[in-house]
Write a structure and sequence with these properties.
Blueprint (H helix, E strand, L loop, with lengths): L5 H6 L10 E6 L3 H11 L4 E6 L10 H12 L5 E5 L8 H9 L2 E2 L5 H6 L1 H7 L6 E4 L1 H5 L1 H6 L11 H5 L4 E6 L4 H14 L2 E6 L3 H10 L1
Parallel strand pairs: 1-2, 1-3, 3-4, 5-6, 6-7
InterPro entries: DUF1638
Pfam families: DUF1638 (PF07796)
């Protein structure tokens, strides 16, 4: 199974392909990482479905969208796993998963589980003024940040939105100089110091390995 391009993952998500017995329902922003883990570990019994990644900008859509996806796919799989953290749903996603009897990864957002929940929590006080990117968000910075905030039309708003930040931390899942350059450019556009932190797949890999 090959992930579609980032624009499709952002706007439409991903329908499951294959005939596995375990289905992972994930944010479209995690598709490349989950498929890479599937290939690396030979998890041929695992299928992936994704909800649109842009729902991170509309978190009220995530829990209802997950409910609909579980209802649509439950009959075809013995196990359904949810590769979403809370992601701004205010606990609604966890309550929906508990009601539906499906397990989700722990954490407030993907930055935390890529970094590792313990490590992220230990750094939390020192990084209150940090703005985070992942591989996907480095590629899709314009779609998720620059255009939705109107910075393409009103760059004078950068100070209003980012004046309380002092750095951009790129949590890198892969070793990719081109993505490093993109993330560095994002920091420059926002007027922030730049830090790259290689995380790999963090707790996402451990979550799937223990259950896949």
């Amino acid at each position: 199974m090959t992930a579609p391009d980032d624009r499709a993952l952002t706007e439409a998500g991903l329908a499951p392909g294959g005939r596995g017995r375990v289905l992972v329902i994930a944010c479209g922003a995690l598709a490349h990482e989950i498929l890479a883990l599937k290939r690396a570990n030979g998890w041929n019994h695992l299928d992936l479905a994704c909800l649109p990644a842009i729902w991170h900008n509309h978190p009220e859509r995530i829990a209802p969208g997950l409910r609909e996806a579980v209802g649509r796919h439950r009959a075809g799989y013995g196990t359904i796993l949810v590769a979403y953290a809370d992601c701004g749903t205010g606990g609604a996603l966890a309550r929906t998963c508990a009601e539906l009897g499906v397990e989700m990864i722990e954490g407030p957002h993907c930055y935390a589980f890529f970094d590792g929940l313990d490590a992220f929590a230990a750094r939390a006080e020192d990084e209150l003024t940090a703005f985070y990117l992942t591989d996907f968000l480095a590629r899709q910075f314009d779609a998720f940040v620059w255009r939705p905030l109107g910075l393409d039309r009103h760059p004078d708003l950068i100070e209003a939105y980012f004046g309380n930040y002092d750095r951009l931390v790129y949590l890198a899942q892969t070793e990719d100089p081109a993505l490093d350059a993109r993330a560095r450019d994002c920091a420059a556009r926002l007027g922030l110091a730049y830090e790259r932190r290689p995380t790999g797949y963090g707790d996402l890999a451990r979550f799937l390995a223990a259950r896949a």
